[in-house]
Each structure stands twice: as structure tokens, then as C-alpha cells.
Task: structure prediction
Amino acid sequence: MVSATISPDGLAYVVAVEGLDAIDLDTVPAKIRQFAVRSINTTARRFRTESSRRIRQQVAFPARYLDSRTDGNLRITRNATADAMQAVIQGRFRPTSLARFVKGPRTGGRRAPTVEVAPGNRQKMNRAFLMNLRSGNVGLAVRLRPGERIENKRKMVQIDSGLYLLYGPSVDQVFRKVSEEVSGEAAAFLEKEFLRMTEALL
Result:
């Protein structure tokens, strides 16, 4: 059976040909194992790209932030092999700095930034400001008075007295929802691709 599902621990999206791992792989023709591996990896690549597109429809992540080959945050972390008939797609677990969603120059300063988390929904954050961090990155920060809270915040981390860095959703958080949407399509494509290859042997 072929499948494309969220793993039991909820930490990854798995594309697999189930059943082959439960039998003696030495009894399975090498060509069949090769077709299974190829169909799984083709499906993983296809639906990593499709998942990236759907994620960006929901949250305005820069495309490069998800898709970069060197440091992309939605990645295939395991490819299928003849000994392990599954591929794994994972999104970055850490919350995303809200500075990633700032429109316009991302440089430190006191000018109120405009943020776009949901595509097409831009909001000016009058009390927030961009600041240069020791790491060399830029963060979006806000200074709160004692006892003051931010409504509708996603996450913030205190870095000094009354000073907080602001964060948006993680890639993993959005990917979990998207993976549920595409799992049926991925399973159907995987089955079709696997059968297309094996039919050539009939």
C-alpha cells in the first residue's frame, strides 16, 4: 500500500510504500525496489514544492525562506532508499522572527514598520521597531510598560527589561495544516507513479 501521512508523533510528513518494509526485501525484485524508491522520492519532491506554494498562500513567508537549496526551512530530510521505503518532509520548528514579514527595508531604526503575515493584509505596527541583533540578524521588537500586554500577539521573547522580540508562526505550524490538505493528493500521485513504473514489467 502507498501512503502519504503525518507521522504518529506529528513531527514530520512521511511519504512511503507501506508493506515492503514488512517483508524480506531480498525476495523483492531489484527493479521493483528501484521503482518504489523512485516513485516515493518523486512524490516527496513534488509535494514539498506544492506544500510550499500552499503555505505561502496562507502565510507570507518569502519563497527563498522555504525553498532555498542550502538553508530552506521546508526540506526533504530523508530520501527513500532500497532499505527504507519512505521519504520525510519537515518544516522548521522554531517560530519565525516577525522581522521576516516586514515590508520594505529590514534595517534597524525607529520608523514604525509595516508587517504582512497573512498575504494581502498589511498592518503598521506603530509601537514596534526593527533592531540589529548581536547575531547579525534583524529583529522586530517592542518595549512594554510594566504589566502591559500585547493583544493578538503570536509569540514574544524578552531580551531586556520591558523589551521583547516578536515572532510569527513557525513553518512547521503551517505545514501541519497543509500536509493534511495534500496527503490524499500525494497518496494518489504516489500510487499512480508506482503503478505506472511497475506496469512496464507486466
